[in-house]
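Recap quiz, item 2
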Amino acid sequence: MTLITQGAEAHLYKTTFLSPSIPAALKIRPSKPYRHPILDRRLTRQRVLQEARCLARLVREGVNVPGVLGVDWDLNSVHSLKGVEKGEKGVGAGAWILMEWIPGCVVRVVISRWEKYLSSRSHSQGNGSVQAEKEEEEAKILALLRRVGAAVGILHKAGVVHGDLTTSNLILRGTGADADAEEEWKDGQEPNLEGDVVLIDFGLASQSIQDEDRAVDLYVLERAFGSTHPRTEPLFGEVLEGYRASYRGSGSVLKRLEDVRMRGRKRSMLG
Amino acid sequence: MIAIGLESSANKIGVGIILHPDDGSTPQVLANVRHTYVTPPGEGFLPKDTARHHRAWAVKLVKKALREARITPKDVDCICFTKGPGMGAPLQSAAITARMLSLLWGKQLVGVNHCVGHIEMGRLITGSTNPVVLYVSGGNTQVIAYSSQRYRIFGETLDIAVGNCLDRFARTLCISNDPAPGYNIEQLAKKGKKLVDLPYTVKGMDISMSGILAAIDGLAVQYGLDGEWNDAEEEAASDDSESAKPTRADLCFSLQETVYSMLVEITERAMAHVGSKEVLIVGGVGCNERLQEMMGIMARDRGGTVHATDERYCIDNGIMIAQAGLLAYKSGSTTPLKDSTCTQRFRTDEVFVKWRD
């Protein structure tokens, strides 16, 4: 079992399921010692069950998400309950969920590679013939962004909102045999922008078909985009275009998004 | 170079003087004086009265600061003031004082964003280079990370600020506003044991506080804990810890545990997203030791560190305005007299941060 990443909520491990040749993703939500044990149990349980239910539903609906292989929402529950009653500190329960392994690279990395690739090229070359090539490159990234928008649209259509959409929670599924070639990439090399967009990490997801929740989802993605990829931010409209085309009812969500954008505090009210 | 900073965006008026030695060594705080407008228990501060208080104190504090710093107006290079955000009438006190000093002394003005002031002072005092910043005060709640010359807001409150939530609950319970309502809630919460169920409202990267305030206010009314204190009753309740009825201390404890968990959660999410290991807590609520403790546990589990400052720099002060203003001044920005206005709305991410790369 190898630790892949420590997110905010959980630790993600790569392990195997049933046979050593089938990789699987194990997400462990350790208890959060900074939280009060009662609050911690409540939140951990709520979230892991929510995550499993959402994923199960999405798999049924045929959305591109990892399938659930197993879940436990109350590790050593008896022990921890007793601890709380005795007033012991820091004995909240943990929980885990085992999921299908998605080979590929997160979109955050793909985009930053693309940004680096682009800047390395604009340094080395500067003549007019590059213009056409540049447009071709841009077309590729635009297509990726549209696929991202479409993936979110299909998710919403299935009745689920993600709750924490960032480019780190989108995987570009590796294509072909060298699906595990995530690490081998040198600065300035052209990144692969092909492949299906798979949504992961449904730790804050919930079942909802309300425009409000859907719009907040898009808003979170938009803001995460702006803060992680300032250079690609101007192209975010393409994500929304992909979203618009992905299902009926996307129009009213995008309209709602404009209201949600106005919500941050202390904005200038001019214009 | 020497800058004088004037801050009066809420119920404190502060004057600070900072020296950036010409040889580039660590900046020195020459003076940092402040006066707080304190209202009776159960009352908040009204803009008009607060502004009157600030106007009465402005000149006294400037004189005191100059005396403490042992400098004369001739030594000052620029006059920095809070341009916003904050309450309109109180903000004007510092802006007018700054304009007056500028004309009197013949020095340049620099308008400063209050939030950026907090961040820059926190960075200076703690020496953290590129932290995720949690800015929590009576008027602001933001999780901020620096990227490409802007302090970008990752998450913020959608309605009221965390400090506002605590202050208003203090008002419901008629807790003293001296030295600060949040401080008194913190002390009371130390005696609390029972956790009452409150809404937990993290929405995306943002949080919402107004529903929590309504819920806990409702509980206070339901258990007859609002309004004037009745000491005998309070003692009886704390003796009888097995009873189902929560005490004032329990409510303060539950409120703190719930809202701080939310703050730590969104901060942790921002850290995970940016890949940063440092957290800097700034703003008035940043003095709260329970918040610092919770943040510390979170950071430790991630192999990171927490930087926090004490009440001299956490709570609104003039020195942070001087610090941020002087950084801007050295990078060539000044505010002409005709633009030296102040505004209630001024987002952290509107400021172009010229002095960092």
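The mean pLDDT of chain B is 93.
The interface with chain A takes residues 84-85, 140, 145, 147-148, 152-154, 156-158, 195, 200, 202-205, 257-258, 261, 264-265, 268-269, 271-274, 293-295, 297-298, 301-302, 343-347, 350 of chain B (CB under 8 Å).
End of item.
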